[in-house]
Amino acid sequence: MRFTDARLPSTHPSNRQLRADGYGRSTADSRSDGSVCPGSLIVVSNRQPYRHEYDSEAEDSGGGGDRSTGTSSITVDEPTGGLTAGLDPVVQASEGTWIAWGDGEADFDVADDDGCIGVPPGDESYTLQRIDLSEEAVDSYYYGFSNRVLWPLCHGFVDLVENRSNDFEWYRTVNERFADAVAEHAEADSIIWVQDYHFGLAPRMIRESVPRSTTVAQFWHIPWPTPASFQHCPGGRAILQGLLGNDLLGFHIDRYVERFLDCVERYLPGADVDRTQRTVAYGGGTTRIVATPMGVDAPTHDGNARAVDSDQLSSLFDRYDISRENVIGLGVDRLDYSKGIPERLAAIERLLERNPGWHGEFTFLQTATPSRTDIDAYQRHGDLVRSEVMRINRRFGTDDWEPIVYTEDYLSNEELSGLYRRADLMVVSPLVDGMNLVAQEYVAASVDGDGSLVLSEGTGAHERLGSHALTIDPTDVDGFASQLEAAVTMAPRERQRRMNTLRNRVFDGDLEWWMETQFDWIRRVHADKRRDGGDRGSDSDPDPDRGPGSDAGSDTDAGRSTDRAGDSRSESRSSSDGDTNEPPSTV
Fold first, then answer.
1. CA-based, 20 to 30 A from 224: which of 207, 233, 253, 290?
2. How far is CA 306 from each of CA 7, 417, 422, 450, rounded to the nearest angstrom?
């Protein structure tokens, strides 16, 4: 019960031009003015593109100097993948500004009094302004409202929402600080691009403090909830008003756009929603809502997979005692309750129950990156996953084989690329996921064309890849197990046919395509504003905290401190989260 066929020839996806239906990649020649950004670019994100750290290894060896005298050796953690790496060259080309939380322990020792530093190191092309946040600010803004309220709520886990006192006020305060930093840099022709759910209030704050001709855009990288879920959002009306401070608001897929418009219609009676044009007129201005599914750096993943060192992969298999002859299933996730890992384990258990012939012949390697471990829900979830792995291995394992190899070890990009290429099937089973980039990384790295993608219908990526992946409902254990059986028994030509199509779609809608599409929209909105004289009022609802979750909207002094203790540090970076599908919405 093994694949006996030889590895099939590499597939080479085509680089198609952008077609009338929106699929395919546009090129620089297709841009109206040949430029990436029509004005000076200001990026706002929680994560920073460069982090400065003290070199602990040099210090331990006695050669790293003394921090107290400023002679300690400092290293720079540079972007390695995802949006941060993709956006960095764009900001370099525009000689713009990037504003982010400074979470590196040496960040403010190398920056000026305003937290600013020229980057990239040694070739300073733009300004990185770091916002210094105290431990209390990080706990309430990041671990609090962002990840105890917005994250579970947007993923449909309403029962996990924790509305702690002061979290919303700290969230507001941190959004204010970022908005103030933007105002210091913004000019009449500036493009301000805000990233993700950490800044739900900032766009309207920015709008009220920058020239009217300035364009404010935002991309919301996680799902948008249904109105039934959104009604549980503390300060929900203020979030909607904040987001409608944008001129352009982007989501991954149409479903999230429609849900957002549903929420606006239900909870902001004064808003004028045009579903045909996908615009919302509110507070004296108009916000255009678009769906643009995010991709990955497909050529890089392809190249890394082709360059895999077989000895390194063999060493990895030896490390985890995996037989090189076994059929290999793979899961790569953050240890997050939205990723459907327990449901995946249940399906693997059912597969083993039904198919004793696969015992000793099939190994599932699950890599999990611990995340947000200060939050109880994440601790409980991690404990559940580990206990289920142990239980299933005790039930089916033998002295020389475990059906599930589970690790929380850090894996290098090279090791991960090797696993992507070697895996016979990739299981991506989130209950809900805004996009899911891991599925696309696997496809891009499947250069031999003989792998199978088992993909949850709850991911945004399913709208682009679902027709040629093996679709699952993660909560249907029997159906899930049946798709795993289909994956491990599929005929070679069928695997090749499916993977060829998947690779074309991933390459045609890669990160470069997504970035170009974002700036195509930004240029269009920016041109409209200039033509209309930048006329966007700053009127706002006089009571922004009434409506869904109004209890969090009291305007207290709690959380309004501008404390710059700044000694709280973030968790280590994970490979991908995250966090595509249909072409940009035509409006």
1. 207
2. 13, 9, 11, 14
Q: In 10 A of CB 93, how many CB atoms?
A: 14
What residue has token string 């050669």? 63
Q: Compute CA 580 distance to the chain's CA centroid, rounded to the nearest angstrom.
A: 11
Amino acid of residue 140: S
Are the C-beta atoms of 391 and 32 separated by less than 8 Å? Answer: no
pLDDT reading at 193 higher than 60: yes
Structure-block tokens of residue 342: 């327990």
- Is residue 159 within 8 A of residue 182, CB to CB? The reply is no
DSSP state of 356: G
HEC letters along 33-75: CCCCCCCCEEEEECCCCCEEEECHHHHHCCCCCCHHHCCCCEE
pLDDT in tens, 101-130: 999 999 999 999 999 999 999 999 999 999
Beta strand 285-291 with 279-282 is antiparallel
Cβ contact 322:312 at 8 Å: no
**Assigned token pair, 111:** 């920056």
> What ranges in 362-491 are assigned the alpha helix state H?
376-396, 413-422, 438-445, 462-465, 477-489
Q: What is the DSSP string of 97-125?
A: EEEEE--STTHHHHS-TTSEEEESTTS--
Neighbours of 349 (CB within 10 A): 19
Higher-confidence residue of 28 and 92: namely 92
Q: Which amino acid is at 186?
A: A
Residue with tokens 């030896």: 318
Task: Measure the CA–CA gap between 226 and 244, rounded to whole angstroms.
Answer: 18
Q: Give the mean pLDDT of 540-565.
A: 44
pLDDT in tens, 7-29: 333 333 333 333 223 333 333 33
